[in-house]
Design brief:
Elements: E1 11-15, E2 19-26, E3 32-41, H1 52-69, E4 75-80, E5 85-93, H2 97-107, E6 119-128, E7 135-144, H3 145-156, E8 161-167, H4 168-176, E9 184-190, E10 195-201, E11 204-211, H5 215-226, H6 230-240, H7 250-276, E12 284-289, H8 290-293, H9 297-305, E13 308-311, E14 318-319, H10 325-330, H11 332-342
Parallel strand pairs: 1-4, 3-14, 4-8, 9-12, 12-13
Antiparallel strand pairs: 1-2, 2-3, 5-7, 6-7, 9-10, 10-11
Length: 346
């Protein structure tokens, strides 16, 4: 939620709950070449802690990672977790950009949940209003100053220059959806503690939601219902998933209530989108993160919604050397946010 100011040499940095991930892309144009990339695991909950000691530990992990993988630029685009960002689509009169910006700022208090004086705000015109030819749709996002400033201080402390912050869900859409696609697609990214639901036309999001259900909730349900410890539960979940014929359906039965809750939220999102854009239909569901590694979850979605479901490819717009393709594809479900940040236009 800062301007790139024309910078062309930068890398994407995804500060996740369980790991730090970095990607640098080389070249110009829609397809860029893969540069240095990698990840560094984070211990415990230090990534979401406010303590100075834990923040320093995260900073150390960032430093170690960029040194190990060979990133030399100091310029970085950094993610903002979707659950810390308020995003909404509003309609505004069709005005020149400078006038529109002034109008949005003047009216912002009626749209964002926190006082404007305590918030960073960004906006972008995403298209024409589906209902009024004299209006345009604007994607408006805001985040608390304190959160951004804490994250900025931590990253600057390790000698990096933050040229932009961007919400996770916007980076996801850029990485996973073809920019020239004109059909609506639903993205589902199951993270550690939360899940992102994004409906995008091309790489432009038209609906963004973060819901407080993630891999931890699924594993917790398995732990309680199977009577095993968390480590065993995680192994069972990611080995058997939603396979009804595996272990006599015990894992399926243990986690299905959580899955049904997540799917119900996806249904709400589709229903809201369809009400706003009655002439458009969701053509595809793209899954990434934990959603793509939970066995039979994509098939469950396809059967439930009657829509094609595909595993997201974070590297779809990246030229990867042939001898590295197996390696990077195996990591695709973890790198969509970092790649999307690195693909951001200068």
């Amino acid at each position: 939620m800062r301007s790139l100011s024309g910078q062309s040499d930068f890398f994407g940095l995804d500060l996740g709950v369980t790991a730090v991930r970095a990607v640098e892309l080389k070249g110009s144009g829609p397809i860029k070449n893969l540069g240095p990339y990698g990840f560094m695991p984070l211990e415990g909950t230090i990534s979401v802690s406010d303590s100075k000691e834990d923040q320093q530990s995260v900073g150390n992990a960032i430093s170690q990672l960029i040194k190990r993988i060979g990133i030399t630029t100091k310029n970085v685009v950094v993610n903002l977790p979707s659950n810390h960002v308020f995003s909404t689509v509003i309609e505004m009169d069709r005005l020149p950009a400078d006038e529109l910006g002034k109008t949005i700022k003047y009216q912002a208090d009626s749209y964002i949940p926190t006082p404007l004086t305590e918030s960073k705000m960004d906006w972008a015109v995403i298209g024409d209003s589906p209902k009024n030819p004299n209006k345009v749709e604007v994607l408006l996002s805001s985040v608390a100053n304190q959160y951004v400033e804490t994250r900025l201080s931590m990253i600057e402390a390790v000698g990096l220059n933050v040229i932009a912050f961007e919400p996770d869900n916007i980076a996801l859409a850029r990485a996973l959806v073809a920019a020239d696609s004109n059909v609506p697609q639903l993205l589902i990214d199951i993270g550690s503690a939360t899940s992102d639901l994004v409906i995008s036309i091309g790489s432009v999001p038209h609906l963004l939601r973060s819901i407080p259900v993630g891999q931890q909730a699924i594993i917790q349900a398995a732990t309680q219902n199977l009577g095993v410890d968390a480590r065993q539960a995680e192994q069972f979940v990611y080995k058997f998933g939603l396979g009804r014929d595996k272990l006599e359906g015990q894992v399926y039965n243990a986690i299905i209530t959580v899955i049904e809750g997540l799917v119900a939220e996806a249904e709400k999102s589709i229903k809201f989108f369809s009400g706003r854009y009655p002439t458009l239909k969701i053509e595809r569901i793209i899954v990434t993160g934990g959603a793509s590694t939970l066995p039979e979850f994509p098939l469950y979605l396809a059967n439930h919604f009657g829509i094609d479901v595909e595993i997201g490819n974070a590297w779809r717009n990246v030229n990867v050397p042939s001898n590295m393709q197996n390696e990077v594809i195996a990591l695709s479900n973890h790198f969509a946010i970092a790649v999307g940040l690195a693909e951001r236009s200068s």
